[in-house]
Amino acid sequence: MFNKVIMVGNLTRDVELRYLNTGSALATFGLASNRRYKKADGMQVDDTCFVDVTLFGRTAEVANQYLRKGSKVLIEGRLNFETWTDQQGGKRSKHTIIAESMQMLDTKQQSEYGQNAYGQTNGYANGYGSNYDSNYNQQQNYQPQSYDRNVGNPYSQNTQQNNNMGMQGGNVEPPVINVDDEEIPF
Question: Where is this region: Disordered (predicted)?
Fold first, then answer.
C-alpha cells in the first residue's frame, strides 16, 4: 500500500530532542495546518488540523537547531497510528507523521525575528508562494515556470536546449538546473 503525507504548517511548540540508546536523535513537535473554506451561507471558516511529527537522525538535530514555535515548515513522510492505555485504563489513540524529509519555509530573518522585513508573517518563503506579498494592489510580473522531470537524461536536455534555442533565436541558452525528483515535494 501507498502511505505518503505532505503537510505545510506552523509549529505549535518548540522541538523536543532526545537521543535513543543507539545514539540516534529523535525529535518531536506539533504541527498546525489551516484550511480556509466558505460554508453554504457564504461565511468563511478556518479549519485547523493538529498533528504530531516525529523526525530521526540528522534531520531531528537540524530541526532542533533551527525551528521554533511558529516556524513554517513542509513535512513529507508517512502517516502512523499510535495507540496506548492512559493512567485511568482507557484506550487512547492518535495519528502522527513519521517524517522522511523536512523543508524550512521561513526566511532567515523570519526565523530569527518571527517576521519578515515588513513586520508581517505573510505566507511562504523559499519559493512557495513567494509571488504574493503585502503589495497585493500592485501588478505582479508573473511568468509561469516549467520544470523538466527528465533532468539528468542527456537526450531530454539536448532536445530541451534545441527547442529553447529555436524560440529564442539561439542568442541565450537557459541554465540547466539539476533537480532530483525525490527533492520535489509534489
Answer: 124-186
pLDDT band at 47; cut points 50, 70, 90: very high
Contact present, 46 and 36 (Cβ < 8 Å) = yes
Mean pLDDT of 96-113: 81
User: In terms of Cα–Cα distance, which of 134, 90, 129 is closest to 115?
Assistant: 134
5-113 folds as OB fold (Dihydrolipoamide Acetyltransferase, E2P) (2.40.50)
**Domain ranges within the chain, ordered by starting residue:** 5-113, 143-174
Q: Classify residue 46 as left (phi > 0), alpha (psi -120 to 50) or beta.
A: beta
CA 90 to chain centre: 35
- Considering the chain, what percentage of its residues have pLDDT values greater than 90? 54
Query: Does position 156 have pLDDT exceeding 50, yes or no?
Result: no
Q: Would you say the C-alpha torsion 77, 63, 35, 45 has a positive or negative sign?
A: positive
Does the global pTM surpass 0.85? no
Residues 6+ apart with CB under 8 A from 139: none
Q: What is the mean pLDDT of residues 31-50?
A: 93
What are 172's three cell numbers?
541565450
Question: Of 144, 47, 65, which is closest to residue 104 (Cα–Cα)?
Answer: 65
Helix (H, G, I), strand (E, B) or coil at 144: coil
| Cell numbers found for residue 138 | 500592485
